[in-house]
Amino acid sequence: MQRKRTKPVYLPLGYKLLISYLLLVLTPVIGIGSYAYVSSVRSTEEHTRSNLEVAVRQIASNVDYRLKDVVRSTDELYADQTLSRYLTGYHSGWEKYSIMSQYILPRLENAANLPDPEVKLSVYVSNPNVGEFYYNESATGDVRKYSLFHMDRIENEDWYRRLKLHYGSYEWRQVGNDRTDASISYLRPLINYDTLQLNGLIKMTANMKYIFSDAGSGQLGEDSILFIVDNDNRLLFISSRNKVKPDLLPSAASGYIQQPDSYMQIKQPVTNMPASVVAWIPYSSLQKNSQQVRNVTIGICLITLILLFLISLVMSQYFARSFQKLIASLKSFKEGDFHKRMPVQGNDEFAEIGSAFNDMASTIQRLIDEVYVVNLEKKETELQVLHSQMNPHFLYNTFSSISRMAKLGEIDKLHEVIRSLARFYRLTLHRGEMIIPVEQELQIAESYLDIQRIKNVDRIQVAYDIAPEVLESESVKFILQPFVENALEHAWYDDEISLIIRAYREGADMIFEVEDNGLGMKEELIGQILEPAGQGIGYGIRNVDQRIQLQYGKQYGVAIHSSLGEGTLIRLRFPCRPYQSVQDEA
């Protein structure tokens, strides 16, 4: 079984041009836009990360600056050899009071006041000969944040036992109540410079809010989190604890922090403390700038695409219109309108095509007009020959009927036949015009039918369905009578035959119909009758069909609808135009 081939999809040239332009436009725009977007996003993220790293380094630097104040305060005491001798020596009486009041306490007060007032200084000495001094808050709110204690106060503390201080060493630790008070202590040994042995402990306790105040300034963004961790990654301080999700905070038991996947981490060590500043910045905040870059890039690309699309549309429409003009002219030629011309504009290839097409059209029109005139004259000659052949035969049969009626004494019928015959010839030969009114063409058929009805003793039944508004329209002469005659000669198979003759307007066209209830015809016979090269049968029908087409165009002519045993319907179609006689035109 042969496979049926599918019909290819029709795609207009304008669409093809537009699609090709869009492909040429979209490829570079999408490529360049994608590269610009990726590069811009990467550059923005790197720039944002660089700015954040600078901000974290600045925070660490500020922390270092505050730590240096604490370190400098302890350096004043650690390097003071005179203070070391007073704290390790033995003094009594007035000398002891004088040394305490005039040197030891002023030195401690100076060291305590060097950094922020939030810093508290505690000095522990092994010499029991030195008296203790406590700071307290007075009623006025003045606080003296320095103290002098004996070592026996801390010798049994776990944190002190774990200390491994020696000459030149120091430690930052949360000892005693530091964790509860959110503080941290800077611990240094007090040295006896005569023996280089440890003679006590210098403890400078600072509030972590003071040391790490910059860690809560919010300069990294609202959703960012700042931690201060020790070298073991244990949490020392966190900014805005109440704004941090609980699942991000370390457990109280471990104290260790762990970076979540949704945050980027920036870590900067602190110089003067075994700790680091850790910043967590959510990737979503980094992507805000990327989204802005993406939106700007997409917006520019869309605007560019719209502009290029409009340009492509204009260009494709320009070329498509030129081709459509040519196609429209060719279609007009195909439909028989040889007067169509292609407008010529500009000075390009389309103008050359238009000029060549118009020249070709003029030549074809001239040749067609010549051939048309020759064919029309030929058809008119054939019609005259047909008339000359038909008239003697028709006239002979009619005269035979007249003779028979005279012999039978049918004077009334004889008179009526002679009158109809005279009317028939008067109408067919009147002035020799080939374009006549529809009313006159109907009268020719009616006169012929009157003669035939009288000859056949009223065995012919005729009905007329004529629209009054078409009577003054024009018609080619002698196109209706041949079909009436054909029906009476070939369709009759019973004692009677019925004919219906119609004339009406359908849109801009004029319609003649001849319908009978006779034998009917096969489809093969209809095809042979209307075949232009047909021989032997249907000459008169083809003659009428060709005369109509020569006069009005190929889209007009004769159509036959018939079924065996049901009759035949002949339909003639031509333009409906008002009739103007040759004398009126002259």
TrEMBL record:
Keyword Membrane attributed: yes
Main localisation: membrane
InterPro entries registered for this protein in UniProt: Bact_2-comp_sensor_kinase, HAMP_dom, HATPase_C_sf, HATPase_dom, His_kinase_dom, Sig_transdc_His_kin-like_C, Sig_transdc_His_kin_internal
Catalytic activity: ATP + protein L-histidine = ADP + protein N-phospho-L-histidine
Residues covered by the HAMP domain: 317-369
Subcellular location(s) of the protein: Cell membrane
Enzyme Commission number, as recorded: 2.7.13.3
Annotated Histidine kinase domain residues: 479-578
Pfam families per record: HAMP, HATPase_c, His_kinase
SMART domains: HAMP (SM00304), HATPase_c (SM00387)
UniProt KW Transmembrane helix keyword: yes
TM segment ranges: 21-38, 296-315
Membrane topology of the entry: Multi-pass membrane protein
Name of this chain's protein: histidine kinase
Source organism of the structure: Paenibacillus phytohabitans
